[in-house]
Amino acid sequence: MLGRVKLVLAPDSFKESLSAAAAAKAMERGIRRVLPYAETILCPIADGGEGTLDVVVSALGGRCDRLTVTGPLGSPVDARLGLIEDEAGTTAVVEMAQASGLGLVPARERDPLRTTSRGTGELIRAALDRDAHRVIVAVGGSATNDAGAGALQALGAALLDATGRPIGPGGGALADVARIDLSGLDPRLREAALEVACDVTNPLVGPTGASSVFGPQKGASPEGVRSLDANLSRFATTLHRDTALDVAALPGAGAAGGLGAGLVACGGRLLRGIELVLDLVGFDGLLEGADVVITGEGRLDGQTPGGKAVAGVVARAARQSVPVIALAGRLAPGFESLYGRGLVAAIAIAPEPMALPEALARSAENLERGAGDLARILALAAPSGCSVR
User: Fold this and answer.
1) Between vectors from CA 143 to CA 310 and to CA 60, what angle results, nearest 5°?
2) Average pLDDT for residues 295-320, to the nearest whole number?
3) Residue 383 has pLDDT above 70, yes or no
């Protein structure tokens, strides 16, 4: 029998082009063409952003219910709720991008002063309706900057203006908040474990807060960013006064336009999304006997070491002394600190310079080719007798 090399293929999605599962399959095709007898373990991953629902539900054999909820602009949208049954009961997976995601808003209409997280709260309520004892909320990919106010309202909280009326939707309406009353929150939240999977550690307010860092990506002008940051600060001050919860500087509270802060007010725990997902998919067990982990995503840059998927994979693999190689659509400065933590190489998959639309259209082809080229290099160190095509 020919010698074998064991490779764990653990990519995140390649944004706007490949799901994590599709990326893992493209990697496998490229590797098998060169190393047909390699043992390949496919382990698609996510870090709390878009795609987390599919990764977790697929890995754990769950199902998805389809619902109609309030979209980020207030109109109805179709969304999926993940449900996983085990001996402990029902675990629900809510992906914010399904209900309140940036992809649901046409580019010309993106305005975080208007967009609401209400639909995400409606998905959480639907999870409670299905007797979920554990609710995992993946909060990446949001279109909102409302501190989770819409979600809080959907779950029964009262956010009132100076006249005692409910404030309107969107981050702009937080300028009117004068009182926050959590007494009407759905009582089932006290019985369920609410886990918030974050892919960032930004605080709610300030120069590294939700508005300053992520507001422009969601359509906020410089003036809009200043207004949104002031409004989030008002929310935090009011929440602290009325409930004694202090979320302004809490790491991760700024995730998803401040939804992290809003879910803390519901009793939620902020967790690193990649760590939560790696635990759920049993990543550590897959590393046993592995020679190399191949991971990847659309772009490696300065944000990568701060809790993104590739950094999480590198850290877990390093504990078992398994080297990691990353394949990416693009490499930008800032990820290099991972070289000292267990990443041994990062490779851009495009074979030649190309415009972004072409690169996205050819992602599967480029990833397959890149994985094949990598397999030829790995063959040099593969067990004696390993066949190379």
Assistant:
1) 50
2) 92
3) no
**Angstrom distance (rounded) from CA 82 to CA 80:** 6
Phi-psi region of 81 (alpha: psi -120 to 50; beta: other; left: phi over 0): beta
Alpha helix segments (H runs only) across 49-103 = 52-59, 96-100
Burial of 241 (C-beta count, 10 Å sphere; 0-12/13-18/19+): exposed
In percent, the amount of the chain with pLDDT more than 70 equals: 97
Query: What pTM, to 2 d.p., does this model score?
Result: 0.92
The distance of Cα 159 from the centroid of its chain, to the nearest Å, equals 27
| CATH dotted code for 6-45+282-379 | 3.40.50.10350
Tens-digit pLDDT profile for residues 107-121: 999 999 999 999 999
CATH 3.90.1510.10 fits domain 52-274: yes
* Per-residue CA distances from 276 to 55, 133, 255 (Å): 12, 17, 16
Q: Which residue, 240, 241, 236, 273, is CA-closest to 253?
A: 236
The closest of 258, 239, 260 to 171, measured between CA atoms, is: 258
